[in-house]
Design goal:
The chain is of the alpha+beta class and 292 residues long. The strands form three sheets. Strands 11-10-9-12-13 form a five-stranded antiparallel sheet. It has a four-stranded parallel sheet with strand order 2-1-3-4, sandwiched between helices. Strands 5-8-6-7 form a four-stranded antiparallel sheet, covered by helices on one side. Helix content is 28%, strand content 24%. The chain contains eight helices and 13 strands.
Length: 292
């Protein structure tokens, strides 16, 4: 009987509840697996005692990125970690969007401001978004009009003071029309897709907690969306074996899909919206455990 850890984080006031976690634990146990949910920073956890550790909802990692990356490295040496530690390291920093753009993947245009960089040059003719390169759940993200320059500068200063690199993107107006589409892959195949509405509303402070997935609904991806998603996955460095991936897409000014985010660390699965996907997720996890 394989032992599988579904890796999560400790509950807290700023941490969302992973409603998929108990569903997966129960489904794996029903399949004859010894499955447990384990916090990534549990000092008593014996990672070497598991045949596979699947990162599921480590949703506090961005606040302690260096510590989390060190854990992923240790865990990956003790057992099989999905996704692998080198993938985690590349994906926790959203500067990976620049890597994707360099090889021709259509992405939302992005500028980066590291601590010490000059903040001058924020957009003056269109709405834009500022958020950290390491973050989850729209934490420290806000939408600005050009006349809100001073507020935006204060946000960047606050982020820099806390050690975050800021990213600046045009606000993609297509989100207000066609939403953001999340294409979920598991075991190398499309699992399901969902669509959600705009997260960032004008005037919402960057440090206010956001509703991460407003108006979530099932979605059937278009051929163009599938092409862009598969192009993004093929561009992940060193072509690693990915157990899971979520590709978040929005429509650019030309109406064509662009990558907003490529989530290879701890994507929400939205299984409550797609309960029929649970057996396929279990099947893929069991296959990964058997390949150790």
């Amino acid at each position: 009987m394989p032992r599988i850890a579904l890796v999560t984080c400790r509950p807290g006031p700023e941490v969302a509840v992973d409603r998929d976690l108990p569903v997966l634990v129960r489904a794996l146990r029903d399949a004859g697996v010894e499955a447990d949910s384990v916090a990534w920073d549990d000092e008593q956890a014996d990672w070497g005692g598991f045949d596979l550790a699947v990162i599921r909802s480590t949703w506090d990692y961005s606040w302690r990125a260096a510590q989390f990356l060190a854990w992923a490295q240790r865990c990956g040496k003790a057992t099989r970690l999905a996704n692998p530690a080198e993938v985690v390291r590349w994906n926790v920093d959203k500067r990976y969007l620049g890597d994707l753009a360099e090889v021709g993947v259509p992405v939302v245009p992005t500028r980066y401001l590291a601590p010490g960089d000059d903040v001058a040059g924020l957009p003056v003719d269109h709405e834009y978004v500022i958020k950290p390169t390491s973050g989850a759940g729209a934490r420290f993200a806000a939408r600005y009009r050009p006349d809100e320059h001073d507020t935006a500068v204060r946000q960047v200063a606050r982020m820099h003071a806390e050690g975050f690199t800021a990213m600046v993107q045009p606000y993609v107006q297509g989100i207000d029309v066609s939403g953001e589409r999340a294409l979920q892959f598991y075991g190398g195949r499309l699992l399901h897709a969902s669509r959600k509405g705009a997260i960032l509303t004008p005037g919402t402070p960057y440090d206010e907690r956001k509703i991460a997935h407003p108006g979530l609904e099932p979605w059937t991806p278009t051929p163009a969306e599938l092409d862009v998603a598969e192009c993004a996955l093929a561009a992940v460095p060193n072509a690693p074996e990915l157990l899971y991936a979520r590709v978040d897409l929005v429509d650019g000014e030309d109406g064509q899909p662009r990558v907003m985010e490529l989530e290879l660390v701890e994507p929400s699965l939205f299984l409550s919206l797609h309960p029929g996907s649970v057996p396929r997720v279990v099947e893929a996890i069991l296959a990964a455990a058997a390949d150790r």
